[in-house]
Amino acid sequence: MEAETLAEDFWVDNRKAQAHMQQMTALRDEVTTWESIDTQLTDLQGLAGLLEEEPDEGLQAEIVASLTALEQQVEQLLFSLMLNGEHDQSNAILSIHAGSGGVDAQDWAEMLFRMYLRWTEGHKFRTEVYDYSEGEEAGLKSVTIEVTGRYAYGYLRSEIGTQRLIRLSPFDAAHRRHTSFAKVEVLPDIEDSIEIIIRPEDLKIDTYRSTGAGGQHVNKTDSAVRMKHIPSGIVVTCQNERSQNQNREVALKLLKARLYEREVRRREEETARLKGDFVQSDFGAQIRTVTIHPYTIVKDHRTNFETSDTDGYLNGNVDPFIFAYLRMKPAA
Question: Which of 127, 140, 132 is CA-nearest to residue 211?
C-alpha cells in the first residue's frame, strides 16, 4: 500500500487516495501495536529470568503490573476480532433524537451526545458535527455527527435503539420523578463502497440559514442544505460546512447511508419472513435504561449487563455495554 502512494497519479482521485491513506494508517497502527506487545513480553521474560536468579519484591511487583496491563490491552484488541461484519471497519454516522418527555428528553439527548463525544475521545476517534438542532428550553432536539476511525461502526452499531432516563427532573418546580427517552441511530459511512443510485429528479433540495448553539457546534452560514429523497420520503440536513457545495456533498453522503440502511433492513426482514421467524424491527426498540432515582443503575435489556456506576457511564464509559453486546451476538 505504501508503494502505491508513490505512483504519479495517486492523488488524481482525491477521495480514493484519502481512503487508501486512512486504511494504510490503520493497518500500520495495528501492526505497530502487536509488535509493541511482543517486544514488551520479550522484555518481561528477560526480567523474569533475572528474578529467578535474584528475588526482588520491587521487580516482581513491576513485572506483575506490566503483565496485567498487557493482558487488558490484548483482551480489548481481541474484541476487534468480533467486528467482522461487512462494514464494521467503516466510519460511523451517529444521530441522536429527543423522544417523549418534553424538555427532559431534550436534555437527555444532549447528555447522550456529550457521553458519546467523551467515548470517542477515549478511543481517539475524530468527530465532526453535521447537523445540530437546539432544544426550545434546554438540550437538543437532534444531532448528527460523523465518527471517523477504524471499527467506529462496528462498535457503535451496538448502540442502535432507544435509551430511557429515570430521574428527579431539574425542570420540574416540584422536583418530581420523570421518565424521558432518546433514540440513537448509527449508520455505516459507506462512501463509494456500495453503489446507491440517486437520480437528480428524485431530489428536492432547499437551502436555509444555519442554526446552532452560538457557533459551538455549527458554523453560522447561509448555506445549510435540506435534501429530501422524494420516492422514499427520507430527509437529511447538513449545516456544518463552509460552502453550499460542501453541504450538498455531505447531505448526499448521509442520504446514501440511509438508503443503504433501509435496503439492508428490507432484505433482512424479507429473509426472516421467508424463514418463518420474522419480527418487526424498529429503531425505537428500547435497549437501555439509566436510573438515577430512587437508586442508581444502568441496565441493558438485551444482554442484562448492568452497573451502578451511572456517573462513569454518562462520562463515556460505554465499552462494558458494547463488549457485552459483542459477546452475545456470536451466540445469537
Answer: 132
Give percent helix, percent strand, percent coil of the chain, each to the nearest 5.
45, 20, 30
Specify the CATH class of 92-187+280-331 in words. alpha beta
Distance, CA of 280 to CA of 216 (rounded, Å): 39
pLDDT at 266: 80
State the Cα angle at 150 between 149 and 154, rounded to 5°: 110
Query: Cell triple for residue 244?
Result: 453550499
Q: Which residue matches cell numbers 432536539?
A: 141
Three cell numbers, residue 176: 418530581
Cell 465518527, residue? 147
Radius of gyration of the chain (CA): 23
Grid cell of 268 as nine digits: 433482512
200-275 fold: Double Stranded RNA Binding Domain (3.30.160)
Task: Report pLDDT digits (tens) over 165-224.
Answer: 999 999 888 888 999 999 999 988 876 555 677 888 889 988 887 765 544 555 555 678
